[in-house]
Amino acid sequence: MPITPLMPVYPRCGVRPVRGEGCYLYGEDGARYLDMAAGIAVNALGHGHPKLVEAIAAQAATLMHTSNLYGSPLGEQFAQRLVDATFADTVFFTNSGAEAIDCAIKTARRYHFVNGNPERHTLITFDTAFHGRTLGAISATDQAKMRDGFEPLLPGFKYGKFDDLDAALALIDDNTAGFMVEPIQGEGGIRVASQAFLQGLRKACDERGLLLVLDEVQCGYGRTGKMFAHELYGITPDIMAVAKGIGGGFPLGACLATEEAAKGMVFGTHGSTYGGNPLAMAVGLAVLDVIQEPGFLDHVASVGARLKGALEQMVPNHDHLFEGVRGEGLMLGVKLKSDARAFVAHARDHHGLLTVSGGENVVRILPPLVIGEAEIAECVEKLSEAARVYVPMADE
User: Fold this and answer.
1) CA distances (Å), 171 to each of 28, 161, 162, 166, 237, in order?
2) Tell me: the pLDDT tens digits for 22-75?
3) What is the pTM of this model?
4) Which residues are catalytic?
5) Cβ neighbours, 10 Å, residue 393
6) DSSP H/E element including 350
């Protein structure tokens, strides 16, 4: 059978969306789906948000791309807004989370190089992490499903056990540049780092001259009810990769860093043709305007708590299938006792509920951050009904 025009690297399901509105997607056959996946934590403002639509249309009609050979008024404005809202002193804009991760890796290595320690090039990362699909990102990921067939991978990474501080500290040697970690693992199954773990990594970096690099591509940008997940831990990173929600559906990412951590990133050390283009910057500013509206993050925290509570009440009613609920804000997961992918397909195909599977047989629930009480109730009702009639396959 000949290869398909779209390279067949995705196991695409039968849902074929052609329109979105708020927290709903509509297929080409007219079917309506409650979207509790949000493009895998991307559509932070839902579908068709008027402020985002207006910003895209206005900027597309004005100026979309010029390259980074010229000054960037919108880029400077957006970068300043992010600096004002975060730990960072400087920002590099990318088109994706994986590009932001690659920039973060380069920034960390370059820091030690300009400090006269080029041997300090190894980042310690963690099992079940997901940092993206570029060669650099999969080299930082200790998962065979990401790596098989792409060797030789890039050197410069060690892999520790997530949320095991002693094991992480034991990996430090003369070649260590720092740690790279997701405060809450997304693809890994909504695994939430403990306070002791992240605070211990921060302390070790401070004591040993290492860098703490956070991957907040999925857990950041309001997803947990805080602007960034590390705020839940009372720490700040030296470098942070951001994407997904930052563009609300438009391809956009960013690498944020302190002035000290970015000291090696000077003219010629990094670049991007499309990164930071005027259209992306206008989108980013529009999304940030909404997220910084008074009460927005409080809304995420409150509806997230109500959704989590409702899910926790539901789980005992289907204890043959569910084990428990995990996560923060609107980054939640329901742990299953059988194959999560099969249940996600069942809920999608028979109940019109879109979710995402994750590691450890977890169903990820990642709705738009603008979700309301009615959609929360509908989500729990559909999930409960799906569980009531679901029959796991015998080989699960």
Assistant:
1) 52, 10, 13, 9, 20
2) 999 999 999 999 999 999 999 999 999 999 999 999 999 999 999 999 999 999
3) 0.96
4) 130, 215, 244
5) 8
6) helix 340-351
